[in-house]
Amino acid sequence: MASVAFQQVSKRFAEALALSQLNLQIDDGEFVVLVGPSGCGKTTALRLLAGLEEVTDGEILIDGKRVNTLSPQQRNVAMVFQNYALYPHMDVQANLAFPLRMAGMPTQTIATRVKEIAELLDLSALLARKPKQLSGGQRQRVAMGRALVRDPSVFLLDEPLSNLDAQLRAQIRADIARLQRRLQKTTLYVTHDQVEAMTLGDRVAVMHAGQLQQVATPEILYQQPANTFVARFIGSPGMNIIPATSLKQFESQASYLGIRPEAISTRHEKHYLAIKVRIQSVEYIGHESLAYVTLFAMHDAEAGHVMIARIAGKFTASRDAESVLYVDPADVYLFDQSGQRIESSR
Amino acid sequence: MASVLVYASILLLALIFLVPVWMMIAGSLKPNARVLLDAGSLRGLIPNGISGHNYQDVFQRVPFLRYLLNSTIITSLIVLGGLLVNSLAGYALARLRWPGRDRILLLVIALMIIPIEAIAVPLFYEVTLMGWRDTYLVQILPLIANAFSIYMFYTLFIGLPKEFEEAARIDGAGAWRIFFLIVIPNAKPVFAAVAILTFLTQWGSYLWPLMVTYSEQVRPLPLGIAAFYTLPPLQWGDIFAFGVMMVTPVLIIFIAFQRWFVQGVASTGVKG
How large is the ipTM? Predict the structure, then answer.
């Protein structure tokens, strides 16, 4: 096991800056998820740590030791690739044994270790199969096994669930979480799926345009987003961000307001704010309804701003109908002109 | 109706290619005197009066086994050396980062259009200066590196998912192990395609061996068959028998590896 530190790490590809001055500390045994939209630099950060790309600026430390110039094998990291990268010409046994063969381990030790890992990941019955004879979930487990077999100090996963269907993804997500808790490996996991990030990570690092936006526990990310990007990205659907002029009460306190879709309701309490809206559409999904609405703002300039309201049960309204929704003022987030959350707002 | 026309065209095309081969086989089994007499008619396709006399003649008149051995040695070494050298070159162009890589790739592509005939004379002077004439070496070494083969390997390697190699790097494999343990096993069809194309080209190679060899000890089969034209009397039956024996190994190899050859050509997107 080991700790990992990115210190002012930047990566430039020709003219494009893929990663800008990343500072991130991952503690021994911690599970950190890097999340963000495509092209945000999360996979670049992972590949820099793996040694598959060279750092342009800054330092990467594993257990306090600078590893910038070390080759991937010298870093003792293991990686699960998005498409698993199982060697197609080798059977499962050979795939699992490959890292140990490269390390020059004795045949008997290799056989023992492969057997242990196969049992751990329920692969014992599949050892003679080639990757093309495996299902997506089985391939994923073999890729995990190949990464774990040589007992790496850091475990890296690059969108490992993105090729699986929704049901299998949920199951394997739980398997990964259980495995990590059991093995206590320092883990860096990259995904664009904020549900994966929130359910797996001890801490989640949100990235955008090559820059780290916020790193915190899932609860803090959800409850105290650092800026409008994080607020919009975390949550499903993300937070509604509207100009502060849309609600008179907050006009002088902020530039933008944030309201989570689940904070909007049809229920009125005495201290709640009333928001007059026009219904665009309603999606009924069983236990709740997603209402897409436009604001009837106080000022003409903001009129027509679209928000999503997540309303428990069935919400019935016809298109273009006028309606009033309510929000607790305590659930309104305030953001300044640059999009940073105003700390005192929550 | 359309499919009947298509099949008829395919059949006609197949006959155009097969008739000369069959005529060679039929002619090789006929008495020498009949070969030319029958040549202008359909009788040329019928092996009447079958005998192995022409085949015996070949072995008596020229050192066929020597030529066969020479061709086998020369072609095999060009194929094996070519697979190693050209695949490594293709890999270096496709995967490794080094200064001038793109310019070299352009040069390789440009070299594909230059035939051996165009460089034969300067190459002849070069090998003469080195004292290599009339050896196996002179028939092998200049022909190992081949721009077309390099390009075929390049197109395959550029299309192989990088993740296999990256996974192997993380698993602790160095560049050579990655190449031999991961890349080559996943490129078998292209290796087969390049091997067959090289074999076909070199097995029938005539001009270069003619220029650089003068003794039967090192000369390959194509020069052996040419010897019949200068060895009176001109026996077409013998020439056909020699031709059959020369072509048979090629056919066997092609039929044995046909599946890989087609896969290999298809996977590189190169049309030979």
Answer: 0.84
